[in-house]
UniProtKB/TrEMBL annotation:
Record NCBIfam families: panC
The enzyme's E.C. designation: 6.3.2.1
Top-tier EC class: ligase
Organism the protein comes from: Corynebacterium pseudopelargi
Role this protein plays: Catalyzes the condensation of pantoate with beta-alanine in an ATP-dependent reaction via a pantoyl-adenylate intermediate.
Superkingdom field: Bacteria
Keywords, alphabetical: ATP-binding, Cytoplasm, Ligase, Nucleotide-binding, Pantothenate biosynthesis
GO biological process: pantothenate biosynthetic process
Protein name: Pantothenate synthetase
Binding locations of (R)-pantoate: Q62, Q157
One GO molecular-function entry: pantoate-beta-alanine ligase activity
A Pfam short name: Pantoate_ligase
Family label: Belongs to the pantothenate synthetase family.
Record's subunit section: Homodimer.
Length: 272
């Protein structure tokens, strides 16, 4: 089992002794737990780092009403299972309580995600990305990694974190880790567990649309029409955006969000 710490003091002690034995690079993999193949891909991407730290913290600030919602209360918490999955692949797991991370309650000072956090996913989840960048900034300050790993499925989160690191001069390299897909192409997500076999089949329309746009960006309007008409799919958006998430910038990413069986699913791909 990897070493598990819950407090900031223990984290700092553990990091200091790891640094003595392995004086190389530190990689951080921030997660909210309930680990799946997608997270293990992040862990695999960190294998070149000398010290690998994985954080598990379901951050209330990034949920509706600062965590006073069913989505946050029902968020799966399965530390023992998560630790078993991490056997041999990380050095340290930091799993703080809410009180440890926010001892004064909701913090007075936040990082703002600004315009990038208000569009796309942010339009249906006001404040979500402010909560994300605030906790990621804290984790970067606490662990002081050389590299931090984030999944490409949450492409908007990744773009906003990259911008925060650039705008606020965090001395860390952000690595984007490709989406893990099922054999048929469905992007790995903890939300897939809420889909029936039929829903999983219908959800393939998202990855097919993203791939079609990636291969031929000029066909996006046609692909969007087909996706909007796909059985069981209720489309929110299929868009080509730049690194800054704007539609009138040089296209860099295909982003897609849709509901299948009432479950909101995301897919994304960088353009070649
Ligand atoms: O992607 C996630 O799991 C979370 O948004 C993150 C980056 C760990 C911040 O809480």
């Amino acid at each position: 089992m990897p070493q598990l710490v819950h407090s900031i003091a223990e984290l700092q002690q553990a990091l200091a002794s790891l640094r003595e034995t392995k004086p190389g690079s530190i990689g951080l993999i921030p997660t909210m737990g309930a680990l799946h193949q997608g997270h293990l891909q992040l862990v695999g991407a960190a294998s070149d780092c000398d010290i690998r730290v994985l954080s598990i913290f379901a951050n209330p600030l990034q949920f509706a009403d600062l965590g006073d919602c069913d989505d946050y209360r029902n968020y799966p918490r399965q530390l023992d299972q998560d630790l078993a999955l991490l056997e041999g692949s990380v050095d340290l797991v930091f799993a703080p309580s809410v009180e440890e991370m926010y001892p004064q309650g909701v913090p007075d000072i936040w990082v703002r995600s600004g315009r990038m956090g208000e569009i796309l996913e942010g339009a249906s989840r006001p404040g979500h990305f402010d909560g994300v960048v605030t906790v990621v900034a804290k984790l970067l300050n606490l662990v002081q990694p050389d590299v931090a790993f984030f999944g490409q499925k949450d492409a908007q989160q990744l773009a906003i974190i990259r911008r925060m690191v650039e705008d606020l001069n965090f001395p860390v390299r952000i690595v984007a880790v490709p989406i893990v897909r099922s054999a048929e192409g469905l992007a790995q997500s903890s939300r897939n567990a809420r889909l029936s076999a039929k829903g999983k089949q219908q959800a393939l329309a998202l990855s097919q649309a993203v791939e079609a746009v990636r291969a031929n960006p000029g066909a996006i309007d046609q692909v969007r029409q087909e996706l909007a008409a796909a059985p069981g799919v209720s489309l929110d958006y299929l868009k080509l955006v730049g690194e800054d998430l704007l539609e009138d910038s040089v296209p860099a990413l295909v982003l897609c969000a849709a509901w299948v069986e009432g479950v909101r699913l995301l897919d994304a791909a960088p353009l070649d």
